[in-house]
Design brief:
Blueprint: E1 2-7, H1 11-22, H2 24-31, E2 35-41, E3 57-58, H3 61-66, E4 71-74, H4 82-91, E5 96-98, H5 101-118, E6 122-123, H6 134-141, E7 147-153, H7 156-168, H8 172-181, H9 190-193, H10 196-210, E8 220-221, H11 229-236, E9 240-250, E10 255-265, E11 277-284, E12 288-295, H12 299-318, E13 338-339, E14 345-346, H13 357-360, E15 363-369, H14 372-383, E16 386-393, E17 397-404, H15 409-414, E18 419-423, H16 430-440
Parallel strand pairs: 1-2, 1-4, 2-3, 4-5, 5-6, 8-10
Antiparallel strand pairs: 7-9, 7-11, 9-10, 11-12, 13-14, 15-17, 15-18, 16-17
Helix pairs in contact: 1-12, 4-5, 5-10, 7-8
Bound molecules: NADP nicotinamide-adenine-dinucleotide phosphate.
NADP nicotinamide-adenine-dinucleotide phosphate (NAP) is lined by residues 8-13, 41-44, 47, 75-77, 81, 99-101, 126-127, 130, 297-298, 302.
Region (Disordered): 332-358
Organism: Caldalkalibacillus thermarum (strain TA2.A1)
Biased composition (Basic and acidic residues): 348-358
């Protein structure tokens, strides 16, 4: 019999407990042996847990370990004390299935080393995009492909907030309160709203794609707290919708990652991903573009990811096939793009059809408040060799669509607090040839140029 331990019995832990309790026959068929939950570590013994036998619950790690679990599901929050528990378990040859993205993003490298030295395994499908089996797809079904780019909506809370703001014209704070009341946002929403939750997930994806943790410390992160309802409304005239995206792409020197709000044209595969749904778009050199979409959080989808992870890991480990290190190529093998004499990336196969990253980043939407913002945006455009495609101003506010030919606009932006800029992420030429042409019939230069 396989003895199961659960660290945590909150939203995710209780989903795992339910799935194991009701799915014992299925698990026996898949694993060839019985499974039984023998120990559950919680923090607060006063909480009511009507569906769980009291004798399974413990409040200290020593008692948890004393029940001798063979496999442990970790579903508590944050790095401490989760790191201590998981490293102890791995050191003692006990496999761990984790949902804890912060733990894996910050301590994954060390935990993999410990697992590898102890000859056991660590898996964390549920830590990225909830029920979507994106890590399994990258680990098992995209081994041959070189992944050139990944774009995703990895945080359901912020996607819910932006969807509601856009569809109902409500303010950020009103929608945030609604989301909290519905249980879609935490009482402390900082990690979601500031983009950290999506950043942890992007760092984990970067490891799966490159086999290295070395790039993730340089990834940049910008959340949605500065987004205002009028930004979304103003951009609708360009056929654009705002999403908090997590993007990973190859550069000449390695891998770059960004979490930030970007405008997407209606034809972009992520533009219609609404509410708490997550999606991940992966571009491989042989397969082309793939889009994975589904529930990014919640009790049952996350439990599903953990149980599938467990079944797969256990079966693989039994047959001796579980890789100690899931990355497909070491960092030194990350293929650098071939550049021609003008520094333009040369593409082959399926990649040929994708516009280059630099090309996509040319378009930016600026919002500012008069009159200081007006001067700032003009300075920014000049310093970044920008070009106005559209500008509209009222006495108080300004909106501009710009084409930036120098990527330094990002650095300039930091010194420009009166202006809010969002990149436009284009997936193909459709938006340029239709939306831009129609806008250009109506081009106005800013009055002050
Ligand atoms: N919620 C989701 O949809 C989702 C999706 C994907 C990944 N995740 C990740 O899954 C993990 C769990 O999330 P959740 O939503 O289930 O959180 P949660 O509802 O807050 O549950 C956390 C559980 O951990 C227990 N716990 C907290 N600190 C502990 C400690 N020091 N020692 C022992 N137990 C402790 C809590 O005990 P008490 O019950 O006694 O308070 C609770 O049972 C997090 O890392 C989260 O990022 C969540």
């Amino acid at each position: 019999m396989l003895r199961i331990g659960l660290l945590g019995l909150g939203t995710v832990g209780s989903g795992v407990y339910e799935a194991i309790s009701t799915g014992k026959e299925r698990l026996k068929r898949l694993l060839g042996e019985e499974v039984e939950v023998v120990s559950i570590l919680i923090k607060d013994s006063r909480k009511e847990r009507p569906n769980v036998p009291q004798e399974l619950l413990v409040t200290d790690f020593e008692s948890f370990i004393a029940r001798k679990p063979d496999v442990v599901f970790e579903a508590i929050v944050g790095v401490d004390p989760a790191y201590f528990y998981v490293s102890y378990l791995l050191e003692h040859h006990i496999p761990v299935i984790s949902a804890n993205k912060e733990l894996i993003a910050k301590r994954g490298q060390r935990l993999h080393q410990i697992a590898s030295q102890a000859g056991t395994w660590l898996s964390y499908e549920a830590s990225v995009a909830g029920g979507i089996p994106i890590l399994a797809a990258l680990k098992n079904s995209l081994k041959f492909n070189h992944i050139s780019e990944l774009q995703g909506i990895l945080n359901g809370t912020t996607n819910y907030i932006l969807t509601k703001m856009s569809q109902e014209g409500k303010s950020f704070s009103d929608v945030l309160h609604e989301a909290q009341a519905l249980g879609y946002a935490e009482a402390d929403p900082t990690s979601d709203v500031e983009g950290w939750d999506a950043l942890y997930k992007l760092q984990i994806l970067a490891y799966l794609i490159t086999g290295s943790w070395e790039y993730s410390s340089s990834f940049t992160c910008r959340g949605i707290s500065e987004v205002q309802a009028w930004h979304l409304k103003a951009a609708q005239k360009f056929g654009l919708t705002l999403k908090l995206t997590a993007c990973l792409f190859r550069t000449a020197t390695g891998v770059e990652g960004r979490v930030e709000p970007v405008f997407l044209p209606a034809g972009h595969p992520l533009a219609q991903v609404n509410g708490v749904t997550n999606a991940v778009m992966v571009t491989g050199d042989t397969v082309g573009q793939l889009v994975f979409q589904g529930p990014g959080a919640g009790k049952h989808p996350t439990a599903s990811a953990m149980i599938e992870d467990f079944v797969f890991g256990h079966q693989q480990f039994k047959t001796g096939c579980f890789p100690a290190h899931p990355g497909r190529f070491a960092s030194s093998e990350v293929p650098a793009p071939a550049l021609d004499s003008n520094g333009t990336e040369q593409k082959n196969g399926a990649e040929k059809h994708q516009p280059s990253r630099h090309h996509r980043e040319d378009y930016v939407i600026a919002f500012w408040q008069q009159t200081k913002g007006q001067r700032e945006v003009e300075r920014l455009v000049q310093n970044s060799q920008g070009e106005w495609l559209y500008c509209e101003q009222t006495e108080q506010f300004g909106t501009g669509l710009l084409r930036m030919t120098d990527a330094r606009w990002r650095e300039e932006l930091i010194c420009c607090p009166e202006v809010t800029l969002y990149p436009v992420l284009i997936n193909g030429d459709e938006w340029q040839t239709t939306a831009l042409e129609s806008i250009q019939t109506d081009v106005e230069s800013p009055a002050y140029t």
